[in-house]
Write a structure and sequence with these properties.
Helix content is about 85%, strand content about 0%. The protein has helices at about 1-10, 15-35, 40-65, 65-70, 75-110, 120-145, 145-170, 170-220. It is globular, with a radius of gyration of 19 Å. About 25% of the residues are buried.
Length: about 230
């Protein structure tokens, strides 16, 4: 598995390096454009951007049909999926941490005014990365670039429909009730478990979701034809 991870990092080193340089520049620019930005929002944004690195590499692999070459190597498809998952987490965490570090350094240099505790950024970033990878990985493993773009388009259309329902039909109450229900449920869990227990619950939920996503991706990739 780790041999495949190293192979991907070597073959895609230029694109990975370009992404890191671009994101490290984007971080301080993002901070300079925002006034009193919550640290949790910074961490969530950095995590979202960081997950685009491994997902874009998977889409690139599908675009150039290099997955067929990988599957011709003396490894099982389960090993291929495991290497993609491991490499995806490594790149996403590295990218997210690099962006947060760049933003933190810019803040220490006097740029921007983030609000909140930086220690909370790690948990928010980890949970965000875990949710995105768990949801998007099976789509990308099955449909490649088309699956990634299709899911992103679907979520954008869903957001537009929700926005139009609020503006044209007056659905503020339903949207507000849905958001309030989720926030209330999370608040109840936090009250029951306490701060530390709630953080551990979030971590366990993300790990369980990624295990389920990995098993689903493995099942899907076994049946994919190239």
């Amino acid at each position: 598995m780790w041999t495949l991870v190293r192979k991907d990092l070597i073959l895609d080193r230029r694109q990975v390096a370009l992404n890191f340089v671009l994101y490290l520049v984007m971080g301080p620019v993002f901070l300079s454009l925002m006034s009193e930005t919550p640290v949790k929002l910074i961490a969530a944004w950095a995590a979202i951007v960081g997950t685009m690195i491994p997902l874009s590499l998977l889409a690139r692999e599908d675009k150039f049909h290099s997955a067929r070459l990988t599957c011709s190597l003396p490894v099982t498809r389960d090993t291929v999926v495991a290497s993609r998952f491991a490499g995806g987490w490594i790149l996403a965490l590295s990218g997210g941490l690099a962006i947060v570090a760049a933003i933190y350094g810019a803040h220490q240099a006097g740029l921007g005014n983030p609000v909140g505790e930086w220690s909370q950024a790690l948990l928010v970033g980890f949970v965000t990365i875990g949710l995105i990878l768990a949801v998007l990985f099976p789509f990308t493993m099955r449909f490649g670039f088309a699956g990634l773009i299709g899911f992103l388009v679907f979520t954008q259309v869903l957001g537009i429909v929700a926005f139009l329902s609020v503006v044209l039909v007056g659905g503020q109450g339903a949207v507000g009730a849905a958001i309030g229900g989720v926030a209330g449920a999370l608040g109840a869990l936090q009250g029951s478990f306490g701060p530390v227990g709630y953080d551990l619950f979030l971590l366990a939920a993300v790990v369980a979701l990624n295990v389920a996503s990995f098993l689903a991706s493995r099942w899907i990739y076994r049946r994919r034809e190239f």
